[in-house]
Structures are given as C-alpha cells and as structure tokens.
Amino acid sequence: MANRSAVDRMAPNQSSSARIVGRQYMVPFILITSLFFMWGFVRALLDVLNKHFQGALELSKMESSFIQFSMYAAYFLIATPAGLYINRHGYRKGVVFGLLLFGIGALLFIPAEAAMTFYFFLGALFVIGSGLVFLETAANPYVTELGEPRTATSRLNLSQSFNGLGCFLAPMIGGWLLFSDPSKAQVALPYAVMGVIVLIVAFIFTRVKLPEIKKVDAESSDEGKVSIRGLWKSGGFVFGLVALLCYEISEISINSFFVNYVTEDGWKTPLEASVLLSVGGLLLFMLARVIGSFIMSKVASSKVLLVCAFMTVICTALVVFNLGAISRIALFGIYAFEAIMFPTIFAMSLQGIGIYTKRAASFLMMTPIGGAIGSFLMGWAGDAFGMSTAFIVPLLGYVVVLSFAISRRH
Description:
The chain is mainly alpha-helical. It has 20 helices and no strands. Helix 5 (91-107) runs antiparallel to helix 7 (118-144), helix 6 (109-115) packs antiparallel against helix 7 (118-144) and helix 11 (235-256) runs antiparallel to helix 16.
C-alpha cells in the first residue's frame, strides 16, 4: 500500500490548482526558509576565501581546496548522526542544535584570524559544516512536507531560492572585505557577525513550536524498527544519491575556482571577479531557481531536469574547449541551468520511500562531500593543466546528472 503524508490525509479534496505551501504551514515555512539564506551565505563565502588564502598563506590551488574539504567532509561524517538525532528528537531540536554548532564555528574565526593559522581556520569550518548538516538534514525534507506532495519540488525550489540570495550576497561582501585592500583584509568579520545572528535565531527557534509531520506506514508507524535495507532496494533513491553526489562535485568545484578562472588570463581582478561571481553567476542562479520553481508548478519536474542537465553538459564542454568569449558566456549558462538541480534531484530521490524519508535525507545530505572531492580534483587539474581544462571535472559530474534525468523521464 502506498504511504501517504499527513498533508494527504488532512486535505483530501484539494482543487486541481494546488498551493505551493499549505495555509496551515505558512509560518513554519517562512521560519525554515530563513535558514536556507544563512547556509547559502556561509557556504558562498568559501568561494572568495579560497582565492584569498592562496595569496595570504601562499597556497597552491590544490592546497586551498582543503577549505572546501574541511566544510564538506563534515557532511559525510556527520550526516548519519544528524539523521539519527533528528529521527529521535524531531525537526525543531535538529534545527536548534545545528544553529548552535553553526554559531560556535563562525565565532571561532575570531581566534583563528588572530593566530592566522590555516589549520585553525579548517577546524572552524568543520564545526560550521557540522552545524549545516543538521540544518539541511532537517530543513530539506521538512519543506517537502509543508503542502501537497505534487508541489513538493516547487516548494523546495522556492525555499532554495533564498539559499541563492545568501549565495549572491556573500561573494560581494566577502570580496570587498578581502580584496579591496589586501593589507587590511578582514576574514573574521563576516563570520563573527553571522555567528551572532545565528545564535539569536537559535534562541528564537527554542521559543516557537514547529509541527512534526510524520510518515505513516500501513505495516508499522515506528521508523526506528524498520531495517534500512529496504531503502537500498529503491533504485530511484540509489541513483538519485549518486546523481546528487555528482551534482555537488560539479557545482561546488566551479564555485570554488570561479575567481581563479576569470583572473587566470587577466580578464578580471580578484575584487572584480568576486562581484562578477555574485552578480553574473549567483544572482543568475537565484533567479533561475525562482523561475524554475514556477515552471515546475506547471511542467513535470523530470522534464525540466532533463532539459537543464543536457544544457549544463553543453555549456561545461564549451568552457573546456576554451573558446574565449563563448566559453565565458557558457560559464554563466551553467549557473542558469544547474539552479534547479539540487532541490529537484533531492525531492525526486525521496519520492515513494515513505517511512524511510528522514533516514534517506541523512544519506542525501552526505553528498556535499562531493564538493570536497571535486574541489580537490579541480584544484589539482588547475595547477597542472590550467583552469579551462580543469572544467572536465564538473563536466563528468553533469553527465551523470543527465543520465539520472534520462532514467526518470516520463
């Protein structure tokens, strides 16, 4: 018997025009969506921090990739404990605990800057990454449940749009603080401010009550008693897990070395490249995600993913071929067409798995380790062959996403 969410049971007589967010869930949706902005901001700061440390600490591209590795390794190591914690204690406590870790890690940047020790920064980033794992493991599946199942993908894309807003602002602010006057670079300031804000938000979440939405199964209502072996028998989930890992390899590696790519041949200065990353790349990414959310309320998400995956493969290949202005335009095409991929693959991977949803989400939230892998490989390739050739790494990742999209077309 197919599993039905709480929303299904409460709203059996929905009209054919479904709301993206259920009326009874509007306040929780707004609160949870604010978290997407926060982790988008702190993750995007890495993209300028990478380039800054190459100069300030005299690191190679491959060495600077350990910035991404430290944060995204947390996703691999902490995702399962985070999933178990959320499964036991619920979404709200998972969010609060994640915010506390996030805030503490951000404030650690103050002593790290005083010591100016690379490993201290890496440790702080690992703590931040651990907090983000809890937040994302709780927030992503929670958002998919705040309305009808058929609008889950659109709903998650809408929340992820605010993630895009944080991503848009971070490189611009970070670039100004780090590159406008390198002798007065302020690494800790944006993290310290974000740390204080995050701890205030954590307090707010201790004072609000978020509804717990539970999956109900015909045979058992206790997810903890069900073996996860059934999850691995779901071919759609397993392929989705692989596709999401490959998407993270592609997206994060491109962001990590965007500044390097556009400064390598003297096209832009580091400060100009940071602004271009915000305005030309991440703003486009955010707008494309909003537009994609609207389109997927009208068109099947599988069809939209197929078109976007095909176009990212084409655009990334054009960058690899190093065709001058054409390659530069194609770079921004990647940002436009990849925008809907994470929430779409995430939501599609959770379809039809019922009581396994929370555990499945914890496995899906391990996939940002792909960012560590992709950044390391792209940094190595950039040192050895140049940044255009290094785009082979994200190209291969998008090919896998395209394969997943083809398998899910209907």
